[in-house]
Amino acid sequence: VDPDVLLVDFGSPSARAVLRTAQVLLTGWGCPRIDAAVLDGAPALRAVVHAGGSVKGHLSPETFARGIAVSTAAEANAIPVAEFTLAVVLLANKGAFDIARTYRERRGAVDLLAEFPAIGNYGRTVGVVGASRVGRRVIELLRPFDLDVVLTDPYVDAAAARELRVRSVELDELLALSDVVTLHAPALPETHHLLDRRRLALMRDGGVLVNTARGGLVEEDALLDELRAGRLSAVVDVTDPEVPPPHSPWYSLPNVVLTPHLAGSAGREVHRLAEYAIAEIERWARGEPLRHPVRPQDLARMA
Ligand SMILES: NC(=O)c1ccc[n+]([C@@H]2O[C@H](COP(=O)([O-])OP(=O)(O)OC[C@H]3O[C@@H](n4cnc5c(N)ncnc54)[C@H](O)[C@@H]3O)[C@@H](O)[C@H]2O)c1
Questions:
Q1: Which of the listed residues 59, 75, 81, 132 should we mutate to test ligand 1's pocket, taking the one with most ligand atoms within 8 A of CB?
Q2: pLDDT value of residue 4
């Protein structure tokens, strides 16, 4: 990579010089917004390839209106989120978080049969909210286990659900059926507080909520009430706001596993994002179709 073509802003004279001739922008997290003024200064631009997930933060509608091809590595970013979800679903069903805490606090024997008679993955129901890129991969990863997987997604009909080999149900039914509910829908106006107080109350006693999607999907005050009452437990990778303030109950509730937006690409996993983006640029340069295009008509339902 030529360091002279690495841009951290679009306004400096050197950035403007690069933009004047650039045909492709490879963007990453924190990319400044590509608005009409930036595009005016980039007359040769034909493609924006994002080595990250959502393109909504940095791409203006103008980018699409000008016919610039857009690609995202969201599919690559979905891989570690799905792996993380698989791991926590299996451990949650096993009671591992709860039992590890009990063992540590008690500093003595735990009678698994007497105290935790319902633990284990065998015959459990997992509810997947959203057959998004992450959601679909989670469904795939859950397949080898003796689990019943149910799905809710307004864009997936019964036939499409059968292809995914899951049963499609309404959200309320999913909440009532599932031992673990895992959220994979995007943050959209219609998914804000998708799990509100009424819906959280539908979850089974002892149920576990896994949120690797976005904090705004859950009415957090209502969830915190359920957690304080000990009726539910949660694995929370995303909150609203993120990061929670220092005195937030998220840090202290014993039945919460809180992680700092860890599920997505981190550490070594960011190399996969770069590989996806570079392979996409190579395809584009050879005149081949993009493998991971973002179509403007899909934006309203995408993360
Ligand atoms: N924790 C992390 O580090 C991390 C990393 C990546 C993604 N995410 C989050 O994971 C979620 C999924 O990301 P993605 O890239 O797979 O999303 P995506 O763009 O693939 O999701 C779009 C799909 O979500 C489904 N959907 C839309 N509205 C829905 C609704 N009301 N109810 C249920 N399903 C609905 C539809 O199938 C739609 O096609 C998003 O919330 C995203 O922000 C988190």
A1: 132
A2: 81
Query: What pTM, to 2 d.p., does this model score?
Result: 0.97
HSE-up (13 A, CA, CB side) for residue 223? 27
> Rounded distance, CA 13 to CA 194, Å?
46
* Residue whose tokens read 């915190």: 224
Contact criterion met (CB below 8 Å) for 75 and 292: yes
Please give the distance, rounded to the nearest whole angstrom, from the Cα atom of residue 110 to the centre of ligand 1: 39
Is 242 among the residues known to form the active site?
A: yes
* Predicted local distance difference test score (pLDDT) of residue 298: 93
**Phi/psi of residue 117, nearest 5 degrees:** -70, -15
Helix (H) or strand (E) holding 199: helix 197-202
**Ligand 1 atom closest to Cα of residue 237:** 1
Q: Residue whose CA is closest, atom 29 of ligand 1?
A: 185
Catalytic residue check, 58: no
CB 220 within 8 A of CB 247: no
Atom of ligand 1 nearest to the CA of 266: 3
Q: Cα(280)–Cα(135) distance, rounded to whole angstroms?
A: 23
